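[Discussion] Sanity-checking designs against the backbone

I'm trying to build intuition for which residues belong where. Below is a C-alpha cell string of 223 positions. I'd appreciate it if someone posts a full sequence so I can compare it with mine line by line.
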C-alpha cells in the first residue's frame, strides 16, 4: 500500500514559513503606510518635540536668572529692608549738640577711653565708654537711628574711613565702635564741616541687626 505523501509545509507538527510568506511579512511591516509604524513615528515625534521644548525652556530660565530678570523665591522673609544708606545731604551738627558713646572692639587696651577724651576736648557730649565685641572690620562703625543721621554725619567727619549703619533707636544718640584699622581722629582744625552725605561703603552691611543694637558692652579691661 502506497504511503501518503508528506506535507512539505509541516515539520514535526509546525508550519514551515516559506520564502514568499517571509517576504510578504517584511513587505507589510516595511510599508510606510502601515498604521503601526505611523503611530510609532507620531509618538517619537511628539517625545522629541517635548524634549527640545524642555531643553529650550531650561536654557531660557537659566539665562534669565543669570541676567537678573528672574528671581527664584527663597526661604528668607520677603520683607524689604526698611531703609538703606541715606542719600540726603546733611549739614554739620555742632559737636556740643551730639551725644555719643564710644566702644573699643579691638585688643588695644584703653583705646575707647583715649578717643573719648579727644572727643570731649572737641566738645562732644560723651556718655558710655566701654569695651565691646563686634565683628566689624575697618576703621570704625558709626551707628544711629533715623533721628541721629545728621549727628552721625558730623561724627564721621571726625572719623575718616568709618562706616555708617542705621539701627532702630528713636533718639539722636550715636554709637562709635572703634575697629582694628583705627589710627587717629582727623585733625581738629582740619575737620571738613561743609554739607555732605553719610559714608556707607559696604552695601550689603548697611542695615544693622536690631536684635543686637544698641551695643551692650561686655566686661573686660579698661576701655
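Best answer:
Here's mine. Compare freely.
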Amino acid at each position: 500500500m502506497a504511503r501518503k505523501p508528506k506535507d512539505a509545509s509541516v515539520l514535526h507538527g509546525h508550519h514551515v514559513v516559506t520564502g514568499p510568506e517571509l517576504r510578504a511579512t517584511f513587505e507589510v511591516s516595511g510599508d510606510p503606510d502601515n498604521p503601526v509604524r505611523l503611530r510609532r513615528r507620531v509618538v517619537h515625534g511628539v517625545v522629541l518635540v517635548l524634549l527640545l521644548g524642555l531643553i529650550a525652556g531650561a536654557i531660557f530660565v537659566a539665562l534669565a536668572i543669570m541676567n537678573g530678570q528672574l528671581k527664584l523665591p527663597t526661604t528668607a522673609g520677603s520683607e524689604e529692608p526698611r531703609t538703606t544708606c541715606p542719600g540726603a545731604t546733611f549739614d554739620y551738627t555742632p559737636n556740643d549738640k551730639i551725644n555719643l558713646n564710644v566702644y573699643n572692639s579691638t585688643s588695644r587696651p584703653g583705646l575707647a577711653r583715649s578717643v573719648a577724651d579727644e572727643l570731649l576736648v572737641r566738645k562732644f557730649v560723651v556718655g558710655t565708654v566701654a569695651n565691646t565685641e563686634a565683628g566689624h572690620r575697618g576703621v570704625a562703625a558709626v551707628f544711629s537711628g533715623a533721628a541721629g543721621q545728621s549727628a552721625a554725619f558730623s561724627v564721621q567727619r571726625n572719623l575718616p574711613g568709618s562706616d555708617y549703619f542705621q539701627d532702630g533707636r528713636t533718639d539722636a544718640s550715636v554709637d562709635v565702635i572703634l575697629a582694628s584699622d583705627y589710627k587717629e581722629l582727623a585733625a581738629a582744625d582740619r575737620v571738613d564741616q561743609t554739607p555732605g552725605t553719610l559714608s556707607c561703603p559696604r552695601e550689603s552691611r548697611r542695615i544693622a541687626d536690631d536684635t543686637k543694637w544698641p551695643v551692650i558692652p561686655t566686661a573686660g579691661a579698661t576701655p
